[in-house]
């Protein structure tokens, strides 16, 4: 059983495995199929006409949290708890091991949600609200292990 109480991080979970960072202005219209064109096993990007880019986080259905101060999505790969995670993310900040994925244009308030969920089904406990300043961001990926028994996947947004 996973314990998630160690940090003041808010985790959400999906059975599907693909999350979408949907512009708030589009959430009510989100049908749950917009991200079908991206690879479900990787980080991707979808363009919504009139609403810009949507970041997708794919792979196994893993719990996800967001660290606003370092603009980093954290996905729970394997761990009994999240002890040491905050320090591992901070230490990873200066690592040269980050993998550059792609650039994405973002601006404003977003809702991180299970991409298969329609906007009419969105409920507060199942989403994370995220504010991002207007700009282009480089999406980078890295796996961290706070200890020998834990592993977390990170995707961060770096201003370019």
What proportion of the residues form beta strands (DSSP E)? 35-45%
Biggest sheet statistics:
8 strands, antiparallel
How many strand segments? 8
Q: Helical segment tally?
A: 1
Given helix and strand content, the structural type is mainly beta
Report the end-to-end length measured between terminal Cα atoms. 39 Å
Total number of domains: 1
Low-confidence region ranges: 1-7
Order of helix and strand elements from N to C terminus: EEEEEHEEE
Please compute the radius of gyration using only Cα atoms: 15 Å
Mean pLDDT, as a whole number?
A: 88
* Basic shape: globular
State the strand order across the main sheet.
2-3-1-6-7-8-5-4
Helicity level: under 10%
Short description:
This protein is mainly beta and 160 residues long.
Your description of this structure?
With 160 residues, the chain is mainly beta. It has one domain (19-159). Helix content is 5%, strand content 44%. The chain is built from 1 helix and 8 strands, in the order E-E-E-E-E-H-E-E-E. An 8-stranded antiparallel β-sheet has the order 2-3-1-6-7-8-5-4, covered by helices on one side. Strand 7 (128-144) and strand 8 (151-159) form a beta hairpin. 29% of the residues are buried.
Secondary structure layout:
Blueprint: E1 19-23, E2 43-48, E3 52-57, E4 64-67, E5 72-78, H1 85-92, E6 99-114, E7 128-144, E8 151-159
Antiparallel strand pairs: 1-3, 1-6, 2-3, 4-5, 5-8, 6-7, 7-8
